[in-house]
Design a protein that fits this description.
Layout lengths: L5 H15 L4 H20 L12 H16 L1
Length: 73
């Protein structure tokens, strides 16, 4: 694991504990866990494709007329 022994990991944990405090460690761990989970999920899922049908010119004209009629009322 990156050539880190148990002593180095303990020193890193103590430094993190001093910097962030014991009360924030669970929040930091949760945030890191969610980030890793979302990253793995995004790597395994296929790209999303937008399949929304495009409006035709006649549909846009109808909507525009309806908006004009409703604003006049």
């Amino acid at each position: 694991m990156f050539g880190l022994g148990m002593q180095e990991l303990i020193v890193i944990l103590i430094i993190v504990l001093v910097l962030f405090g014991a009360s924030r460690l669970p929040q930091i761990g949760e945030g890191v866990g969610k980030a890793i989970r979302n990253f793995k999920k995004s790597m395994s899922e296929p790209e999303e494709i937008d399949v929304t049908p495009k409006k035709t010119v006649s549909e846009e004209k109808k909507e525009k007329k309806e908006e004009e009629n409703s604003s006049k009322s």
